């Protein structure tokens, strides 16, 4: 592969992800209109996936309905949005949805949890099992453990799948 091909493929991927973001934004704008909720939609591309956020100037209180308990409604809306993108493009989407900063806050908390677990494992030399988590939560913890210089694995079956932090 030549460098030019790589650049073109990178540009094609970016264009595809931007298209996913546009489709998702249109879908979510329609949803906000139906629910009579105020919110602005912010689109980005991060880590090879489209990222769409719904934010509100009037405070995130109204948008909490779209987050739900422990992010359950947010997860469902993310899947529906991915399906809407799939319907338009024919391609499976890995789009990430955040509402009222819920996922960003959760990511920070989980990164801290992963770092603390890694520190405990480094100190004790014993593996540490964490509570069951969603795939998103496990990914964030795995990344934090890796950044701390250790490794981790997921074990168990959904929805009881959990991360085990392992000593070197």
From TrEMBL:
<dbReference type="InterPro" id="IPR039247">
    <property type="entry name" value="KhpB"/>
</dbReference>
<dbReference type="InterPro" id="IPR038008">
    <property type="entry name" value="Jag_KH"/>
</dbReference>
<dbReference type="InterPro" id="IPR036867">
    <property type="entry name" value="R3H_dom_sf"/>
</dbReference>
<dbReference type="InterPro" id="IPR001374">
    <property type="entry name" value="R3H_dom"/>
</dbReference>
<dbReference type="Pfam" id="PF01424">
    <property type="entry name" value="R3H"/>
</dbReference>
<dbReference type="InterPro" id="IPR015946">
    <property type="entry name" value="KH_dom-like_a/b"/>
</dbReference>
<feature type="domain" description="R3H">
    <location>
        <begin position="104"/>
        <end position="168"/>
    </location>
</feature>
<protein>
    <submittedName>
        <fullName>Protein jag</fullName>
    </submittedName>
</protein>
<dbReference type="InterPro" id="IPR034079">
    <property type="entry name" value="R3H_KhpB"/>
</dbReference>
């Amino acid at each position: 592969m030549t460098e030019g091909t790589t650049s073109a493929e990178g540009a094609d991927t970016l264009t595809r992800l931007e298209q996913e973001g546009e489709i998702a934004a249109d879908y979510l704008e329609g949803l906000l209109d139906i629910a009579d909720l105020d919110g602005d939609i912010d689109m980005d591309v991060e880590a090879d996936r489209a990222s769409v956020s719904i934010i509100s100037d009037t405070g995130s209180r109204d948008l909490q309905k779209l987050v739900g308990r422990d992010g359950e409604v947010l997860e469902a809306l993310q899947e529906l949005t991915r399906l809407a993108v799939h319907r338009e493009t024919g391609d499976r989407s890995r789009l990430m949805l955040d509402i009222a900063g819920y996922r960003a806050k959760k990511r920070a908390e989980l990164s801290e949890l992963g770092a603390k677990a890694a520190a405990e494992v480094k100190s004790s030399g014993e593996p540490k099992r964490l509570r069951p988590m969603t795939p998103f939560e496990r990914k964030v913890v795995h990344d934090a453990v890796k950044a701390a210089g250790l490794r981790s694995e997921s074990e168990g079956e959904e929805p009881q799948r959990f991360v085990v932090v392992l000593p070197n």
